[in-house]
Amino acid sequence: AEVDVVVASISEALLVKGRSNMLLQADVLLSSIPVDRVFDCVVVPGGPGTKLLRESPIVLSIVKRHVEAGKKVACICAAPTVLKEAGVLPTNYTAHQSVAEALPNILAEKCVVDGNIITSRGAGTAIEFGLKIVYELIGKDKADHVAAAIHFSA
C-alpha cells in the first residue's frame, strides 16, 4: 500500500519469537521511540502475547495518546483488551471470542470501525483487517488496488 511501517519490540531484543516459534525482526525497541512521537496508525497484534502488551505502561500510553489525538489505532484478535486496559475501548468493537469474558459486548462482525479505532476478530479476518486499515488511512481506491493485487474478494 506504499506506507512506511515501523515494527517495534516491547522486549529488549529486536528479534522476537511469537506464537508457533515464528521469528519477527523488529525495526526498533519500543522503549527507544520518543515519547512524543505520533504515528498515523498504531496496530496492536493479538494472540497470547497480548497479555504482555496489556501489562506494558509504554504500550498503554501510546495507545491512549494516539486515540486521544484522533489517530488510528487498529487491534486484532485479543488486542482490543489493550484498548480496555488503556481506558479507550469504543462502544462498538469486535475481538476474538476467547476474550469474551473480559469484553462482553463483542460484535460478530469481521471488522468494526468506531471513530478512529479499527478492531477485527482474529487470524481468519486478518486480510479484511489489513485492507480496512488501508481503506481508513489512504482510501477506497488504494484498498481496492491492494485487494486486487492479492486476488482477494470478500
Top keywords for this entry?
two-stranded parallel sheet, single chain, globular, 154 residues, Rossmann fold, four-stranded mixed beta sheet, 8 strands, alpha/beta
Compact summary:
By secondary structure, this protein is an alpha/beta fold. The protein has helices spanning 50-54, 57-68, 80-86, 126-137, 140-149, and strands spanning 8-9, 15-17, 23-25, 28-29, 41-44, 72-76, 111-114, 117-120.
Q: How would you describe this structure to a colleague?
A:
The chain has 154 residues and is of the alpha/beta class. It has a single domain, classed as Class I glutamine amidotransferase (GATase) domain (Rossmann fold). It has 5 helices and 8 strands. The chain has helices at residues 50-54, 57-68, 80-86, 126-137, 140-149, and strands at 8-9, 15-17, 23-25, 28-29, 41-44, 72-76, 111-114, 117-120. Strands 5-6-8-7 form a 4-stranded mixed beta sheet, sandwiched between helices. Strands 1-4 form a two-stranded parallel sheet. The radius of gyration is 15 Å and the shape is globular. Residues 2-134 form the DJ-1/PfpI domain. It holds the Pfam family DJ-1_PfpI. This is DJ-1/PfpI domain-containing protein.
